[in-house]
Design a protein that fits this description.
Layout: E1 18-26, E2 32-40, H1 45-66, E3 70-78, E4 86-97, E5 101-104, H2 106-109, E6 114-119, E7 126-135, E8 140-144, E9 168-173, E10 181-195, E11 201-208, E12 220-222, E13 228-237, E14 240-243, E15 252-256, H3 257-267
Antiparallel strand pairs: 1-2, 3-4, 3-6, 4-5, 5-8, 6-7, 7-8, 9-10, 9-12, 10-11, 11-15, 12-13, 13-14, 13-15
Length: 275
């Protein structure tokens, strides 16, 4: 999802007031009786408000911890032919090692003549990256930058096999070049299969409703512990079953961390996942 020519919880703050809980009872005779049951805010409204506050606090903590380990990637390609020129694609990446290793989607950097990685947001330092290894079939690529004078914050990887539908999900990336953007949702489904740009099937994929847009590709999908459980890769878009382009439809897909970790191990270039 790079740029390539590219419940609600309803919680009322009721203070010390008494909240009225309306319960609708359906009798066997098909008659409907409405009963008003009094409930103290300490039991009902405060519980809902507490849930919302906990959720918001969790998102804040995860963002503060994980955002420094998410980078923006700009890949420039020189095209030839009658209408040749320069094409720039943007995406995201995950710092996976203190020696300057970064994992991203292969489709973010495929064919690029120049890859620039930016750390810490739009005002952060930039480095030119080189491609260390590629697994086109899983749409993954390992990049390397010179780590000198950089304060690197590798992210930890979680166990994608332990993920359950309904778990909270957090995505951080570079959608539409708006760097360091956090979106929040849940795990919507597990075990999906998507098609890599080279035509291979990627299995065990995680589906989420956390908003993913062009530029999110290669960024992390995180669990409630702030661990990477997947690499955001595709979305379902109108007119296309699966795409690396298009805008958020509420159906996004991430390559599971189990696949990513296996790739990092096979690439065997000193990638210490999670630092």
């Amino acid at each position: 999802m790079h740029r390539r020519p590219i419940t609600s919880i309803l919680a009322a703050a009721l203070g010390g007031l008494i909240a009225a809980l309306v319960v609708v009872l359906v009798a066997p005779s098909s008659g409907v009786t409405t009963r008003v049951v009094s409930s103290s805010t300490g039991v009902a409204a405060n519980a809902l408000a507490s849930d919302r506050q906990t959720h918001e606090t969790l998102a804040h903590v995860i963002y503060e911890r994980a955002a420094p380990g998410v980078v923006a990637i700009l890949a420039t390609t020189q095209t030839s032919g009658l209408f040749g020129g320069t094409q720039s694609d943007s995406g995201s990446g995950i710092v996976v090692g203190a020696k300057g290793l970064i994992i991203t989607n292969n489709h973010v950097i495929a064919g690029a003549n120049k890859i620039i990685v930016q750390f810490g947001g739009s005002s952060g330092p930039t480095r030119r990256a080189t491609v260390v290894a590629v697994d086109a079939s899983n749409d993954l690529a390992l990049l390397s930058v010179k780590p000198g004078q950089l304060k690197l914050s590798p992210l930890r990887f979680g166990n994608s096999a332990a993920v359950r539908v309904g778990d909270p999900a957090f995505a951080i990336g570079n959608p539409f070049t708006f760097d360091q953007t956090l979106t929040v949702g849940v795990i919507s489904a597990l075990g999906r299969t998507i098609t890599s740009p080279n035509g291979a099937s990627i299995t065990g994929v995680i589906q989420t409703d956390a908003a993913l847009n062009p530029g999110n590709s290669g960024g992390p999908l995180l669990n409630a512990a702030g661990e990477v459980i997947g690499v955001d890769s595709q979305i379902a878009a109108s007119g296309s079953a699966l795409a690396t382009q298009g805008s958020n439809s509420g159906i996004g897909f991430a390559v599971p961390s189990a696949t990513v970790l296996a790739d990092l191990a096979s690439m065997d270039h000193g990638a210490a996942a999670g630092g």
